[in-house]
Amino acid sequence: MSVCGAARCCWIQSRSAVRRILQQNRTVCSHTNGSAESIRKKLQAFSGGSIDLQKQQDSGIAVLTVNNPARMNAFSGSMMLELEQRVCELETWTEGKAVIVQGAAGTFCSGSDLNAVRAIANPHDGMKMCEFMQNTLTRLLRLPLISVALVEGRALGGGAELTTACDFRLMMSDGVIQFVHKYMGLVPGWGGAARLVRIVGSQTALKLLSGAKKVDPDFGKQIGLVDEVLHCSSSEENALAHAEQWLTQFIKGPAPVIQAVKKVVVSGRELPLGEALQTERSVFGTVWGGPANLEALALKPKHNRERVPPRQRVNVALTGPWELPAAHTVMAAGRRDKLRDLPPVEQSSSERSGSPSPGDTLPWNLPKHQRVKRSKSASGDVLDPAERAVIRIAGLLSYLLIRSRTRSFFSPADG
């Protein structure tokens, strides 16, 4: 009874602890939602520019454009809100495979608009804006789509942080990434520092942030921040076409499979091993037995085609295995399935003339019920049974003669 009482007490305590945690989570969520609503109202007051989204249903690639050329594509307050809406649209795009983030008019992004920064200069509102953009860019990074930042021109401050919220970064020959927060007396606040450390490592990230170093295409590829450099003309359409062509190698296949791959990679990157393995099992269950899986199993690749017995692959008109050395080598190696890759064999003389040739009567070219065990002489002629018997008797006599002489040679001499 004491054990049962102790177990019941532990169960009650654990249940109360779970209730307290749930209540704390509800409080935090309600507080976060309230903070987000208050900062949304303030950001909405600073209009200008737009975040454009184009979805290509045939290729499954979306293009997200930061469009505010008058201010080097800096984020106004309304653009921050639009970015959240566009990310929300991409989260529910079931036919999508990838998204390309670019800037308009040959410039990627120069961070946040100074007018909005000055208006929310107090620390409390600044932290709310920082939290809002952190959540938005984190959702962008966790999209079930492969994301690519196409850096054309300058990516400064918040624009540099935006590049780290993508899976890959492509740069034009004139592109530059620079974390200039130090010159403004700030540090990255949109999550760029934490993501940069995971991309290039802590030491390189420290050099880029503390030195505000300019990252050109060559240096970016050297430190691992840039995945590919696109050498093409500076026109926006040409750069986008090259980016789509580069991205094609990763998005071949059905959209559900590409999204499942991105989900397991995100879970493996951000979750502990146990939780990542559980997520991987769950995602595997969503694609196993699905249309894409069944379609792949229904197809028969060349390396899985039905094997044909070797006797049906090799022409039976062969007069012997020596006429096809490659076949003999393959058979000796135990790789009979490779015989299907050998070149075709010419017709035998019997097939051309209609009369049987000597080779057609060899044992391996006859049906089983017609095969007779026969031997050959040194010259290659077929022996009769009587000749075989004479040869066997001669061999036996030779053996006995040699044996008797050997015994006499090794026997001790008579005294």
UniProtKB/TrEMBL annotation:
Keywords: Cytoplasm, Lyase
Region spans: Disordered: 334-381
Pfam families: ECH_1
Record's keyword annotation contains Glycosyltransferase: no
SUPFAM superfamilies in the cross-refs: ClpP/crotonase (SSF52096)
Biased composition (Low complexity): 348-359
Highest taxon of the lineage: Eukaryota
Membership in a protein family: Belongs to the enoyl-CoA hydratase/isomerase family.
Role description: Decarboxylates ethylmalonyl-CoA, a potentially toxic metabolite, to form butyryl-CoA, suggesting it might be involved in metabolite proofreading. Acts preferentially on (S)-ethylmalonyl-CoA but also has some activity on the (R)-isomer. Also has methylmalonyl-CoA decarboxylase activity at lower level.
Name of the protein: Ethylmalonyl-CoA decarboxylase
Provenance organism: Cirrhinus molitorella (mud carp)
